[in-house]
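Notes from the 1:1 (GR / supervisor)

We went over the backlog. Supervisor wanted to see one worked example end to end before approving the batch request, so GR pasted a single chain during the call. The sequence is below; no edits were made to it. Supervisor asked that the structure be written out right there so they could see what the output format looks like.
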Amino acid sequence: MKNTEVNIKSEAELIRQIKNGEDEAILDLCFLYKPLINKVKNLYHVRYYDSQDWEQDAMIICHASAISFDLNKGKFGSYFKTRLINHARSLVRYDNAYRRQALKQSVSLETAKKNNLLPLDKSFVSIPEIPLSENIAILTGRLSHLETNALLIGLGVIEQKEVIQKLKISKLTLSRARSRLVQKMRQTLLN
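Structure output shown during the call:
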């Protein structure tokens, strides 16, 4: 029981220090709630979020919670937990909304057939939605339609003959597009 009282006292003291502008106390307060932070981190999966991102967000939320917490009302732990879980849920909602964008833009095969659309026509074949890094996302944004097709040929997604026929270009034009693609890859990925 004494140990619990010491934790409560030190927690209240840490909150007072944070309210007084002693930001170093946030590290100690976050350390007290490390098990809670780890539990929330393991409960909610957000794409592109690693342990450092979770810890940084938890520290920011802990700091804001300490500043706004009234020491005369309730327990800080439950207040911080609620704010941290709400933040995690917001991240998941945002992530799921991003994933649903592709569904909003999609057309069923029945509708495509009915309207004589070719769902896998040249402009619909694209680079995967999830880039391996920011540099790859930057690269794909800089490519022309012809250079994108050259990349897809190189990756084996589409055939060279198919691109030449659909775009009505020569092999020389496609070869030049490949050269520009290689230059842009070097500039973006190696610099």
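Supervisor's comment: The longest helix spans residues 76-105.
Batch request approved.
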